[in-house]
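Right handed beta helix domain-containing protein, Candidatus Entotheonella gemina. Tokens?
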Amino acid sequence: MTHSRLVRTAMTVGLFVSLVLLGQAIPYQATAQTIIPVDCNDPAQTLNDAIQVANPGDTIQVTGTCQEMVTITTDRLTIDGQGSAIIDGGGGFPIQPTLAGVITIDGASGVHLTGLTVQNGPDGVLIVRGASARLTDVTSRGNADEGLQAIDGATATFSGTIVSQDNGDDGIGVFITSSLTLDSGSSVSSLNNGDNGISVFSSSSVRAINTTIRLDNNGRLDQFGDGLSVWGTSTAFFSGTTMVGADQNAWRGIVLSSASYLLFLDTSAATLTNNGSDGLGIFNVSRFSLGSGTTLLSESNAGMGIVVSSIAIASCSSESTVTLLNNDSGPSFVSDNSQASLACLEPMTTTQVQGQPRSVPEPPVEEAETY
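Tokens:
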């Protein structure tokens, strides 16, 4: 065997041995995922202590009622309340904009909260500073500010049954380039909150497919509280069989303002009833679209069924179904500088108001929270 062949053979054997050793080493590089039990009914145990020692990928299983506020900065951490755990922030917080949650997820990615209730905090769950989190079967109630909030580039996903109720400000807030996705088959309810049921503000977005959304009795502390408020170049997309219901909110069922966009596709539908002003308001260079097969019912509202004003556009497919019924101020109003397809204004009646001067109260300016 020549010298060059010996060298090549040695290199080949060395490479083979290295690959074998590398393959054997791979299993030892993985970090085992740990389940950490916490019984908050035991004074010696706290959720915060468990969070401090947890590693990425760990699961903390919680039982009982935890009287504390916690911050999560660990990636891929799961907090599992097993369907009954309560995290209680202690209450006593003023109703004012703040950035603190009973559970705050600050910058961490892939966090999962499941099967628990958060209550009596400033915010219930706060996802902030680019964090990403999934919430499954979570209830947030009785907080001074938002029930569930994603802000400052945060990403939230809701699955299962999500309830946000009896909070001092918005039930759900998606602010400052943040996004919220509602998974297929999920149910989201935002009820009896001080301001809006869902607020989407400052280049943020909400997307839902095959989801049931209830936005009822919001605006307890703010006469301008809406069911769904989409503001400041923000977007909301509803598709599949998504059903949006907004009933008995203090002001409008749904409002769009400041170059925002709301789109219904497939067989998705909106039912806007018994609200204190208009069923649907579209303002300030915003756009509303109903695709083929979609449905809009705006009924028994104290204002108009639909208002399109201030260079706004309402576009409804001829194959969508729009019903504007028994609204106190009439079916619809479209300002001279705005546009609405005829399909958005059905049924046309003698009480239709289109292109005529009328004082239409536009939404108050929203202020995003700061930290």
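The first strand starts at residue 35 and ends at 39.
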